[in-house]
Amino acid sequence: MTQFIYNSMTHKKEKFVPLEQGKVKLYLCGPTVYDYLHIGNFRGAITFNLIRNWLEFQGYQVTFVYNYTDVDDKIIKRANEEGVETSVITEKYIHEFEEDFRRLGLKKHDYNPRVSEHMGDIIAMVEKIIANDKAYVIDGEVFFAIDKFEDYGKLSHKKLDQLEVGQRVEVDKRKKNPHDFVLWKPAKAGEPSWDSPWGKGRPGWHIECSAMVKAILGESIDIHGGGVDLLFPHHENEIAQSEACNCQKYANYWVHNEFINFGAEKMSKSLGNVITARNFMEKYDAEILKYLFLSAHYRTQMSITDDKLLQTISALNRIYSAIALAQTTVESVEQAGVTDNNFVKKLEDYDVKIKKALDDDFNSAELISYVFEAVRSFNALGFANKKKRNVTHKGASEAFLAWIKKYGQMSALFNADPNVILSRLDEILIDMKKIDRKQVESLVALRSKARAEKNWQEADRIRAELEEMGVELFDGHQRGWKVKVSE
Ligand code: AMP
Ligand code: ZN
C-alpha cells in the first residue's frame, strides 16, 4: 500500500512520491524563542514526531529540520524589557524548549538551525532574488515584488485583488504593490543587526525558513509543515522567495496542523489563554498531553476541557493496567511462554488496520483506537485469576508487550513504568475531582473499625458513602482506596 498525504495546496490527499527514492526531506517551522511554549505550540512537534517515526518505520530515511527563530521583534521587546542582550533571552528559551522536548520524550530532530547562524545564507538568497528581478531595494530595505512572481497565492489560493490592504497598518507608499513584503530591513538603534550589501540590518521573518531549508535540505523538499496560521502569509511568502531564487518547486507536500483551542478560542499568547507545556506536564503529565493530541487527527481542531482530560486519564489507566498485568504475568510464570496463535492473529489484524490508518494521512486517532482494541482483546483472555495464569498467558503477554512497544516508540507513548504512571494518574484524579483525602482516609479508618467490630451494616454504609464520593476501595492498592476511573 502507499502513503497518502493531505496537501494543503491542492486540498486533496495525494499519493506520496519522494524526490529521491527512499528518502524524505522534512521541514517544520519551529518556535520563536522568547518565552515558554504553550501546549498548542507542541501540537506540531508531537504530530510530526509520529509522522517522522511512521515514515522511518516504513523504511524511509528521514531528515527532519526544525528551526529556532532567534531574531524577531518579540525577542527584542522582551530583551529591552529585561534590560539584557537578545542572546540572553534566546539562550534561555532554547534551553527551556529543549527541556520540554526532552520531557515529552520526542525523537531529536536532525537539525535545529538558528536564524542568527544563517545570516550569510539569508543575505545570499536575498541577493539572488534581486538578481532574478523579483525584489527591489529602497533606502536600505529590500522588498519582494509579488507582481513579478506569477504564482503568488498558489498555496493559500488568495487572489491578489482579494487581499485587503491597509486596514490596520498604514500602507508603505514606497512599495510597488502594497502586498510586497520585506526581505531585509534596516537596523534601528538598540536592535541586533548584521552587515549586508544594503547596509546594516536584519532579515524579514519569512526569508529565514527559505534560507535554512536551502542551506540544509536543498532547493526542493518533500514535506513542509507548520500550524494552519502559518499558511498565509508565512508559507505563501516562503514559496515566493524560494521559487524566485531557485527557479525550482519549493515543497511537494504542505502539511498543516489545526489549532488547539481553549474553550471556544484559539490558544494564543496574545489572548492570554495559554497553558504552558511546562505547567501542563507538572500539573498533569507529558503522557496525557501526547495521548490527548494524538487521539484526534492533526487536521481537526481540538479543545482542551476537563472532560477530555478525564477521558484521557481513564484511557491511559486502562492501557497501562493491561501493560502492568502483562508484565507481572511474564514475571510470575516461570516456564517459557507459548504462542497464543489466536491472539497473535488479532494483533496482526490490528497491524494491518493501523497501517491503513497511518497510510491515510497519518490518522493517529485510528492508531489510538486500535491500541485500545488490542488492550480489550488482551483483557478478554481471562487473566483475572492469578493462580490460573499459564504459559499461554505468558506467551500472549509477551506478544502484547512487544506489540504495544512498537506503537509506543512510534508515538512516544506507553513507555513509562506502569506502576509509576498509574499512581500518578490516580493522584491527578484526586486533584481534578477535588477529593478530600483527609475525609476519605477517616472514612476508610472508620470502616476498618466497623469491620473489626463486625458491624457489617455500618461498614457497608461507609463503602456506599465513599462510592458516592467517587472513591473505590481497592485491595492491593498502596492506600487501600483510589478514585474511580470512569470508562
Ligand atoms: P509561534 O512561536 O507563534 O511562531 O508558533 C510556533 C508554532 O506553533 C507555529 O507552527 C504555530 O502555527 C503553532 N501554534 C501556535 N498556536 C497554536 C495553537 N493554539 N494550536 C496549534 N498550534 C499552534
Ligand atoms: Zn517558517
What features would you describe in this structure?
This protein has 487 residues and is of the alpha/beta class. It has three domains: 4-257, HUPs (Rossmann fold), CATH 3.40.50.620; 305-426; 433-483, no CATH class. 47% of the residues lie in helices and 13% in strands. The chain is built from 15 helices and 15 strands. It has helices at residues 41-57, 73-82, 86-104, 119-131, 207-216, 231-246, 277-283, 286-294, 306-332, 341-359, 364-379, 391-411, 418-432, 437-452, 456-468; strands at 4-7, 12-15, 23-28, 61-66, 135-138, 141-144, 182-186, 201-203, 221-227, 251-257, 260-262, 265-266, 302-304, 471-473, 481-483. The strands form five sheets. The chain has a four-stranded parallel sheet with strand order 4-3-9-10, covered by helices on one side. A four-stranded antiparallel sheet has the order 5-6-7-8, covered by helices on one side. It has a three-stranded mixed sheet with strand order 12-11-13. α6 (231-246) links the parallel β9 and β10. α7 packs across α8 (286-294) and α8 crosses α9. It is elongated. The model has no long low-confidence stretch (mean pLDDT 94). It binds adenosine monophosphate and zinc ion. Adenosine monophosphate is lined by residues 29, 31-32, 40-41, 43-44, 226-227, 229-230, 259-260, 266-268.
